[in-house]
Specification:
The protein is of the alpha+beta class. The protein has two domains: 1-43 and 149-179, no CATH class; 52-132, Arc Repressor Mutant, subunit A (Orthogonal Bundle). Helices cover 64% and strands 17% of the residues. It is built from six helices and six strands; from the N terminus they run αββββαααββαα. A hairpin with a 2-residue loop joins strand 3 (46-49) and strand 4. The longest helix is centred in the last third of the chain and has 29 residues, at 150-178. The relative contact order is 0.14.
Length: 179
Amino acid sequence: MAEKEKNRTNEELKNELIHALFMFRNLHFHRFGGKKIGLMSGIGRGIMAGGFWVSMPAFALLKQLQIRENRGETGGAWLSEMRDYLCVSKAAVSQMLGTLESRGLITREPDPENRRTIIVRLTAEGRETIKHFEQGFDGHIGMMIERVGEKDTRELIRLINRITDIIGEIADESEIEAE
């Protein structure tokens, strides 16, 4: 039982680190009238999965969809949250969804309870793409966690999340001062 708990904890740690690294990669400073200047743009621009290229934002969308499906959340209202999470426009999210759907990784259908939203679901091929990516990525993340250590990895996640929050606060304060 202790081994199963340790594996669950390691899986959670890996997911938290992936999320934190993605958020760190997408930190932006607002300068010169809202122009965004990317920080860490060189961290992984995409992956080859299932025989075709999947961008990191598209993979992040797939992963968030998987997490939400595992929680039983299939409604489309979360897509607006994805714009902020991915640091992209509504049009970019729509384009990603279209691409993922055309490749057979997701399905989209109107929500029968709220026709203004859509239900997005992973297909078997979408789940396989996530699995394929994670198998390759797990080795790298696992080695990083092993070398850095669990305590320092958790501290890294905490610091990245803190930096992200602070930059968001600074951006909010700058917008208030500009008004």
